[in-house]
Amino acid sequence: MPECHTIPCLLSPWSEWSDCSVTCGKGMRTRQRMLKSAAELGDCNEELEQAEKCMLPECPIHCELTEWSQWSECNTSCGKGHMIRTRMIKIEPQFGGAACPETVQRSKCRVRKCLRGAGMEKRRWKEAR
C-alpha cells in the first residue's frame, strides 16, 4: 500500500470582522475561523484568528483650562470699581470637543467712600504750610 498522507485541514470560512475595539481613534478588530476536520487526522498549522488595526474618526479633545488666578485689587482707590480674575487655556478643543468657558471674570468692588472736594482740601493744607 502506498504511504498514508496527512489529511489537509478543513477550515470554515472567515467570520466577519468584529467592530473596532474603540469608538474613536485607533483600535483593533479581529475575525476567526473554525477547524472543521478532527485535529487527530493531521497537523493543521493554519491560523484560526486574525487581527488588524482599525481607525475611526479622531476622538474629541475637550478644552482644558488652568485654575483661576487670584482676584486683582479693586481698580479704584475709593468708591465703586471692579476687580478681575483670569485663567488660561491649556488645550484648545478639537474634533468636536467641548468649547472653552469664560476665561475672564469681573466682580464689583467698593473701597471706602470718596471724600468730596478732597483735592481742594489738600491744596488748602499745602498753601497753609
Which labels suit this protein?
129 residues; mainly beta; TSP-1 type 1 repeat; 2 domains; two-stranded antiparallel sheet; 1 helix; 6 strands; rod-shaped; glycoprotein; SPON1 protein; TSP1_spondin_dom; TSP1_rpt_sf
Question: Describe it for me?
Answer:
It is a single chain. 0% of the residues are buried. The protein is mainly beta and 129 residues long. The longest helix is centred in the C-terminal third of the chain and has 11 residues, at 118-128. The protein is built from 1 helix and 6 strands, in the order ββββββα. Strands 1-2 form a two-stranded antiparallel sheet. A two-stranded antiparallel ribbon has the order 3-5. It has a two-stranded antiparallel ribbon with strand order 4-6. It has 2 domains: 8-54, Thrombospondin type-1 (TSP1) repeat (TSP-1 type 1 repeat, Single Sheet); 62-109, Thrombospondin type-1 (TSP1) repeat (TSP-1 type 1 repeat, Single Sheet). 9% of the residues lie in helices and 27% in strands.
Structural class: mainly beta
Task: Count the E strands.
Answer: 6
CATH architecture of the largest domain: Single Sheet
Structural domain count = 2
CATH class of the largest domain: Mainly Beta
CATH topology of the largest domain: TSP-1 type 1 repeat
- What is the CATH superfamily of the largest domain? Thrombospondin type-1 (TSP1) repeat
Helix content: under 10%
Pfam families: TSP1_spondin, TSP_1
Keywords: Disulfide bond, Glycoprotein, Signal
Organism: Cardinalis cardinalis
Protein name: SPON1 protein
Concise description?
Residues 63-114 form the Spondin-like TSP1 domain. With 129 residues, this protein is mainly beta.
